[in-house]
Design brief:
The protein is mainly beta. It has one domain. 10% of the residues lie in helices and 39% in strands. The protein has an eight-stranded antiparallel beta sheet with strand order 1-4-5-6-7-8-9-10. The chain is elongated.
């Protein structure tokens, strides 16, 4: 039992259990699909999931193509957690489902190497705590999550090394290899049941990046000599042929 005095502490101390499950794979701590494809430990690409190291950034820039294409390119993830607040003296309503252990979300991953020059990262997520209905009962909802499809080429000589490519993705920042925008920024995952750290709502108007809309992003990028990186991405509504990039979005 925790004695929590503020909603912020409630969110920070809420316990969250993350379980990674892979099909036909050894235990992993990132995307088991990529671990199987490359035959490498997750630490080869990550300094702590989902943060990428130098090799991990190169793997993504090369379109997830390193290694051997998998016959069944699938992996799954489940997130469960519990929150509890006692002796609440703040006057703020207690956490929803206070003290209950609940499945927060489950994701199915696919993608990896498609050809020598094309690959993908595709995530479909079921959110078991999408929100309460009029009777304060929680309901679930599923839809496409972070998705990034790439075509890449690499040109190398004695003195120069250039990686360039195209990326088609469904949210601003999903394609970012430095995790510098909200799609991949800390805290990565947070307890869905935790009370808002800012109950007043002041200052909560999201920017375009913060809101993570399901849009269609088409960009081109180049990485020269492991030092110089440039990218140009344009965004539009995900309708027509691109509506698959917001499947399940409401």
């Amino acid at each position: 039992m925790f004695r929590l005095l503020t909603p912020r502490l409630a969110g920070l101390l809420a316990a969250s259990l993350t379980a990674w499950l892979a099909l036909f794979a050894a235990p992993a701590q990132a995307i088991p699909l990529f671990a199987r494809q490359t035959g490498m430990q997750c630490s080869a690409c990550h300094v702590g999931f989902p943060e990428l190291n130098t090799f991990g950034r190169q793997f993504k820039l090369m379109g997830y193509t390193l290694g051997t294409r998998q016959t069944i390119p699938l992996a799954v993830m489940a997130i469960a957690g519990t929150n509890r607040i006692s002796d609440n003296t703040t006057g703020i309503a207690p956490l929803p489902k206070n003290g209950d252990f609940a499945l927060q979300a489950a994701s199915l991953f696919t993608g990896g190497k498609i050809t020598d020059h094309a690959g993908a990262f595709v995530q479909w997520t079921y959110n078991n705590l999408a929100g309460p209905d009029a009777n304060n009962n929680y309901y679930g909802h599923s839809g496409i999550d972070n998705t990034d499809i790439r075509y890449t080429q690499r040109w190398s000589s004695k003195d120069q090394d250039l990686i360039w490519g195209l990326t088609l993705h469904n949210a601003p920042g999903v394609q970012d290899v430095w995790n510098s925008v909200p799609a991949w920024m800390f805290p990565y995952m947070s307890p869905a049941l935790a009370v808002n750290a800012n109950p007043s709502g002041a200052g909560d108007d999201p920017t375009f990046l913060d809101s993570q809309p399901r849009v269609t992003g088409l960009g081109t990028y180049a990485f020269l000599n492991n030092n110089w990186y440039g990218e140009l991405t344009l965004y539009r509504s995900s309708d027509g042929v691109f509506s698959v990039l917001r499947a399940g979005d409401t």
